């Protein structure tokens, strides 16, 4: 589902940025300065042209990811609106049509002179605003798997997603099955 009509997946980028920071917090408390630019990889994977990005976008995108997480951590729609409005207040939104790099005309939300970080900030904030305005908090949140710190945004038709990935869903299903089997074995003795 492309909420904003841009050639990138802003909602997917928001989720991946948050999950990259969540995963590194659990697996690697300190980000090695020698490590590859993982946040730039998220940009490229979600259709952002990162060619004009500064030497490292890591610090700015990690800080933005922590801000995006506030939308996923809420428990009601009022809190989600406050979190989204705080994001929107911190980005410069200046919609315009652009046809750069051989692409047809498409909508940009940040000013023409904005760098890739500012474009990503504006489009991810706007994508989360569209998600919350359309679906409240029913389509996004924290993974329901025990111990998982990642988030998800559900763009499926049935809106039944509760996990960040099939792996977490499968682990949870296996754990629930084993718990039921243990309980049934205890009752039959």
From TrEMBL:
InterPro entries linked to this entry: ABATE (IPR010852), ABATE_dom_sf (IPR023286), Znf_CGNR (IPR021005)
Highest rank taxon of the organism: Bacteria
Domain Zinc finger CGNR: 139-180
Protein name, entry field: CGNR zinc finger domain-containing protein
């Amino acid at each position: 589902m492309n909420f904003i009509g841009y050639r990138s997946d802003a909602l997917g980028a928001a989720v991946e940025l948050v999950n990259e920071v969540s995963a590194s917090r659990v697996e690697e408390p300190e980000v090695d300065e020698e490590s590859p630019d993982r946040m730039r990889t998220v940009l490229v994977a979600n259709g952002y042209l990162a060619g004009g990005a500064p030497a490292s976008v890591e610090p700015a995108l990690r800080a933005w990811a922590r801000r995006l997480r506030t939308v996923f951590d809420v428990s009601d729609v009022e809190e989600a609106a406050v979190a989204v409005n705080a994001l929107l207040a911190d980005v410069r939104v200046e919609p315009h049509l652009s046809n750069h790099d051989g692409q047809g005309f498409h909508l940009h939300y940040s000013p023409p002179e904005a760098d890739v970080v500012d474009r990503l900030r504006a489009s991810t904030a706007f994508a989360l605003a569209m998600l919350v305005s359309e679906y409240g908090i029913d389509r996004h949140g924290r993974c329901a798997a025990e111990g998982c710190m990642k988030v998800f945004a559900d763009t499926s038709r049935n809106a039944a997603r509760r996990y960040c990935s099939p792996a977490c869903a499968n682990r949870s299903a296996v754990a629930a099955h084993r718990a039921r089997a243990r309980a049934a074995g205890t009752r039959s003795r």
